[in-house]
Amino acid sequence: MHPIIQIAGVIDKEEAALLCKAGVTHIGFPLRISGGREDLSESEAKSIISSIGSSVATVLITYLDDSDEVVDFSDYLGVGGVQLHGPISETNLENIRNRRPHLFIIKSLIVRMNNLSELEKEVSRFHHFVDAFITDTYDPNTGRTGATGKTHDWAVSRRLVELSPKPVILAGGLTPENVRAAITKVRPAGVDAHTGVEDPDGRKDLALVTKFISEAQKAFGLIE
């Protein structure tokens, strides 16, 4: 699989166009999430997604756990993929897979303190129904499981990369300054950034996005 470089959380069409021009492969849209911010309305997201060309994949990032809701919402938005960021049953995952065989399904693996064995079991349970996993960081101070701006023990993600039959994407506190080291350590199939490429106002910073993509491409061996 070609390395994934995903940026999540766009505010408007201008920001989405900036990311596309900068060279991302995937843009994530956090919607119907738990304990986190939504950067735009669902109708605005739908409009932006329809304006993005086929060269950049669009991904719904959501905490929905009912297969019918996931499928219906994905259809409404017109996304090519869905990142299931909360707990979900094997039955619901299988239903999504069966109803939408071509939807790129990513399942989160949330790294907490000393939970590697639990994550290994999740990989074993869910890998039949997903196209990829994404590791992210739990914040014990807020209870949030995404867009925390916090890294986790990359050795855990490296272990999951080694054992997973499906590709593993790395997220959690990635920035232009640490993404190359993270890729070198973990050897993931892709990386995802959200807060690490934003300015103090919460907008994507072109200089940070450009550097993040360049550093990731260098680590993946796509450029020198």
Q: Which terms summarize this structure?
A:
224 residues, alpha/beta, 8-stranded parallel barrel, globular
Explain what you see.
This protein has helices spanning 13-22, 42-51, 67-77, 90-99, 116-126, 154-163, 179-186, 206-219; strands at 4-8, 26-30, 57-62, 81-84, 104-111, 132-137, 168-170, 190-193. It has 224 residues and is an alpha/beta fold. It starts with a strand and ends in a 5-residue tail after the last helix.
Question: Rounded to an integer, what's the Rg over CA atoms?
Answer: 16 Å
- Fraction of residues in helices? 25-40%
- For the largest sheet, list the strands in their spatial order: 1-2-3-4-5-6-7-8
**Biggest β-sheet: count, sense, barrel?**
8 strands, parallel, barrel
How much beta, percentage-wise?
15-25%
Topology:
Layout: E1 4-8, H1 13-22, E2 26-30, H2 42-51, E3 57-62, H3 67-77, E4 81-84, H4 90-99, E5 104-111, H5 116-126, E6 132-137, H6 154-163, E7 168-170, H7 179-186, E8 190-193, H8 206-219
Parallel strand pairs: 1-2, 1-8, 2-3, 3-4, 4-5, 5-6, 6-7, 7-8
Helix pairs in contact: 3-4, 7-8
Summarize this, please?
The chain is α/β, with parallel strands linked by helices. The chain has helices spanning 13-22, 42-51, 67-77, 90-99, 116-126, 154-163, 179-186, 206-219, and strands at 4-8, 26-30, 57-62, 81-84, 104-111, 132-137, 168-170, 190-193. Helix 3 packs parallel to helix 4 (90-99) and helix 7 runs parallel beside helix 8 (206-219).
